[in-house]
Amino acid sequence: MRSITNSLHHQAAETLRQQIFAGALGPGSFVDEAALCEQLAVSRTPLREALKVLVAEGLLRHEPRRGCFVAEITERDVDQIFPVMALLEGRAAHEATAHAGPADIAALELLHQRLREHAGAGRITEYYEANYAIHEAFITLADNRWLAQVIGDLRKILRLARHQTLHVPGRLQQSLAEHLQVFAALKSGDAGAAEQAMRQHLLAQREALRELARNPPSRIAP
Question: Coiled-coil regions in this chain (predicted)?
């Protein structure tokens, strides 16, 4: 029975995560336990376990006697998280370079070619997907579960912002150039250069977010 309850609460947690990331549960919104039990077809016990997981991840906040609310990410949060992400993903690039073999480099070559094609065609959604696959590949190559865990946790928090930085004019090609610089360092076996290039890539994303805040999509020319 315990394993069934665990399975239910994991499923409920994942469903709630996706609703939060998709904006179905907006920042600051109240989490209605009774409605969610009915929607997810679960009892209060697995739902409350799921809520505890999301509170621990930082996606929800719990207020005594009031319940749970979707977390809100502030500009200060983003300012504090991005330098940490830059350090962590930079380290992942360093370790990935140290571990990469010919087969790994060949696989990354294909991913970067896909990235070039999407950038050239202006396919932003597909570019995001290829971009994510490349970052995941570096983290997998790093083979450091602590790095992977912390990066994964911080990524979840940043997804609350739901910013589309590639809509900033010029950012798509800039992002591609940054990725190619990281990959060139990895191919040459220069772990230090790969680390520095990945750090700069993450910090450039933060600058793109500032530009997005100054010029929201409605004000950015298509």
Answer: none
